[in-house]
Design goal:
By secondary structure, the protein is mostly helical. It has one domain. It comes from Cladocopium goreaui.
Length: about 180
């Protein structure tokens, strides 16, 4: 019988280690570093405005920035919802821990990597909110690392652990929700 956890967050703490899914840098710290870098570049180098100031009516600018705030908040919510859903299914979120169950419902029924999709939506939303290209530019290292290294590693690991379940899931669920 499995261990009873008082909180879903306890799952990762007690999950067995598995170095096959270990990554040099977990995506959340890279996500935060990209956001912080975009903010610093905007302040220290140059704003690189998406929309030049004073070229559009104030109401339009307020609407666009409001849309950016909504997108950023939706991204945070979607990432959190996906993370909490995995933990509630008693599967660890952190890299380097053995995955016991393939989670295919909730946010994972729409997209194979909803936490990363939420992080990207947050970055782009913050860029629109702050009216700067820097968020988009600084998302490039995140996209390259997560899309080019982390996601393929995770998918190979899951296919090795859950071969039939993974192939069925991957065949019907888009990687990023828009394929």
């Amino acid at each position: 019988m499995g261990r009873a956890f008082s909180r879903p967050e306890d799952v990762t703490a007690f999950a067995p280690k598995d170095n096959r899914i270990l990554v040099p840098m977990p995506p959340p710290p890279l996500f935060l570093a990209c956001i912080a870098s975009a903010g610093l570049l905007k302040l220290l180098i140059r704003p690189l405005s998406l929309i030049p100031p004073n070229r559009f009516p104030r109401r339009l600018m307020i609407g666009l920035r409001g849309g950016g705030a909504v997108a950023a908040a939706a991204g945070v919510w979607y990432s959190y919802k996906a993370m909490y859903h995995v933990l509630a299914e008693h599967s660890p979120v952190a890299h380097g821990h053995q995955v016991r169950y393939l989670v295919v419902d909730g946010p994972y029924a729409q997209c194979r990597h909803p936490m990363y999709l939420g992080m990207l939506l947050t970055m782009f939303g913050l860029g629109i909110l702050q009216n700067t290209w820097w968020a988009g530019i600084m998302s490039i290292p995140f996209i390259a690392y997560v899309g080019g290294y982390v996601v393929p590693l995770e998918e190979r690991y899951l296919e090795a652990e859950f071969p039939d379940e993974w192939r069925e899931y991957a065949a019907k669920t888009p990687r990023w929700g828009i394929e």
